[in-house]
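Hi L.,

You mentioned the student needs an example of a multi-chain input paired with its predicted structure. This one should do, with 407 residues in total across all chains.
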Amino acid sequence: MNKSFSFPIIFMVVITAVFTLILAYLNYTTVDVIAYNEETDLRKTLLYVFDIDIPSEEPEEIEKVFNEYVGEEEVGDDTIYYVKENDEITGYAFPVDGTALWGTVQGYAAISGDYKQLLGIDFVSHSETPGLGGRISEEWFKEQFRGLDLEDVQDGQYIVYRPAPGGNVDAIAGATQTSNSVSKLLNEDIYEFINRRKGE
Amino acid sequence: MAGDSPKKIFKAGIWEDNPIFKQVIGICSALAVTNLMLNSLIMGLGLIFVTAFSELTVSLIRSFTPKHIRMMVQVLIISVYVIIVDIFLKAYYPEMSKALGPYVGLIITNCIIMGRCEGYAQNNPPLKSFLDGIASGLGYTIILLIISFIRELLGFGTIFGYQVLGSWWTNWTIMVMPPAAFFILGVIVWWARSVSGEDEKEGGAIS
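Structure written out for the whole complex:
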């Protein structure tokens, strides 16, 4: 065994360089695939909130449908998405986020072009308890938000849980904190979005 | 441990020296990812891969590695393989990568890998070290699958995502939460230790 002072340093440098090279190569070859996967995820989310059917789970198919219907636009720091039909915008999708029980919840909400209806919501990431708050990403919960009326609403309380007066959505039993946070962040972000658009 | 036959290595990894209930290492992830069987399986496969290849690499370069920096070298090697697993999942199994989240990166902190590198690969030839990695990883995976089987069945009424219990079944929320893993793991360690009929050695403290 070499007991010299410099050998361990040289050894460490060489071995680090070799392994870093391997990783750099791997990263280089997969970076496009990973970026594409992330885009596909986002496209799926947006198509879902606009309630556009996805013909198959194939990433290429999703991309085709997405490009056919959805356009995007930069507003401030956010990217918002819109759907056009006969040159008329029929819906907007925009990012929503806020803190819930365990951490940040991020997602997208879509509203109709005349700001009168909520088209749908979806969550991109959250860290709520699986089986409890985590159920916000279940189909039955998200589907409840489709077609909610946004017009005759007081003080931006678009989403109100039943059985409160004017309730339009069921909360998740056993996950009151998460449910409340979700309605709060949706109400706030929808309110802000509509006001900003109308103010323009 | 020189001169071990593959059979002996596997017997040790899966039963006699099982990392979870004998050495009681790698507990952290055993508690964290066992709420669904699929998560546990992928986590187990990831760990088998990382442990086996880390041990192989450590063993291959063991005669050149200066003794006093061997741990640095081991950590480096382990992290390389963990990043490979992470990149692989992100590129080809994005859904899985999302489900496991930060736990993939945390494979690196799993004591099993470092423990086996230091305890076995440092003193044994490459092929045996590789097998030892697979054996230890299997021992870990099997326990994870047992825990997640119980948790997923009682917590969601499903196995690998397939509904097996009817709508009459009321999900046990506690099973989905981390405490359930503590109970089940405790029971498994208790059972395995009484079956193997070995007394706790004096001063055999476990960390």
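You could point out the following to them. Chain B has nine helices and two strands. Chain B touches chain A at residues 35-36, 61, 64-69, 72-73, 76-77, 80, 83-84, 87-88, 90-92, 94, 155-156, 171, 173, 176-177 (CB under 8 Å).

Best wishes,
N.
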